[in-house]
Write a structure and sequence with these properties.
This protein is an alpha/beta fold and 265 residues long. The protein has 2 domains: 125 residues, Periplasmic binding protein-like II (D-Maltodextrin-Binding Protein, domain 2, 3-Layer(aba) Sandwich); 89 residues, D-Maltodextrin-Binding Protein, domain 2, CATH 3.40.190.10. Helices cover 43% and strands 24% of the residues. The protein is built from 9 helices and 14 strands. The strands form 3 sheets. Strands 1, 5, 6, 7, 8 and 14 form a 6-stranded mixed beta sheet that branches. The protein is globular.
Length: 265
């Protein structure tokens, strides 16, 4: 009987070990599943109000709040990855990021290169210059130094426009915050940028920039989330979630937090 009891005990021990191994295996699979749900967005972290660092060096902004709301809805883990804006295509093609989400204006060229969501925010491009500038209208910038961000829709629009041929120099910057600092020191005459971004910086930093309308240079900006060309599955998931957030009033709430009005579409 004792021998029989020992045998039963050994069988139970073996079953316990097998069960532990199975649980560990399942746990590994679950971990991989959770890891696969990480959603990595690429952005320029000095582009307020879409994505920028606050006084605590945390990346915040309109697009960050929307991405957080979307990931909460989808049950994904959000990873915010700062990138060089000039290298955004390489970043997404290499798989380092899942998408570009950072006030990314849609153009025919970008629509050819990327798979994109529906437009979720609209804005226009304008000139920001010093309050005491003698320039009062677009034509006054002929022969002047105009700043744009490298790789931006504003750079592309200015370079292909007729007016772009009449300015003195198109000066490229890695980010608009640096460009605006150089504007204040007189190194450039104006910054050509999104009205949303420029107005937010003007208001939040209590600057007295003069804002001048642009004509015949660019169409209104239509901001989208961009994915690697052909990645329609992930695009569709994000698009559906954005539409649901819009219907639920969440996009309106986030827009009003940053702008005081609803600029979402």
């Amino acid at each position: 009987m004792k021998e029989k009891g020992k045998l039963i005990g050994m069988i139970i021990l073996v079953l316990v070990i097998i069960g532990a191994i199975a649980l560990a295996t399942l746990g590994g699979k679950n971990a991989k599943t959770e890891e696969a749900k990480t959603f990595t967005i690429g952005l320029d972290d000095s582009f307020p109000p879409f994505g920028f660092r606050n006084e605590n060096n945390e990346i915040v902004g309109l697009d960050i709040d929307i991405a957080k709301a979307l990931c909460e809805k989808k049950g994904w883990e959000l990873k915010v990855q700062p990138i060089s804006w000039a290298a955004k295509e390489q970043e997404i093609d290499s798989g380092n990021i899942d998408c570009i989400w950072n006030g990314f204006g849609l153009t025919p060229e970008r629509e050819e290169k990327f798979t994109v969501t529906d437009v979720y925010v609209s804005s226009t491009n304008k000139f920001f210059t010093k309050a005491d500038s003698s320039c009062q209208k677009q034509d006054d910038f002929k022969g002047k130094k105009i700043a744009v961000q490298t790789g931006s829709i504003q750079q592309a629009d200015m370079e292909k426009s007729e007016f772009g041929k009449e300015i003195g120099e198109l000066v490229q910057y890695n980010d608009y915050l640096t460009a605006l600092m150089d504007l204040e020191t007189g190194r450039i005459d104006a910054v050509f940028m999104s009205e949303i971004s420029g107005t937010y910086i003007k208001t939040s930093k209590n600057k007295d920039y003069k804002i001048i309308d642009s004509e015949g240079i660019s169409e209104p900006n239509r901001d989208v989330v961009a994915f690697k060309k052909g990645n329609t599955e992930l695009k569709d998931e994000v698009n559906q979630a954005l539409n649901e957030l819009k219907q639920e009033g969440k996009l309106k709430e986030i827009s009003e937090k940053w702008f005081g009005e609803d600029l979402t579409r």
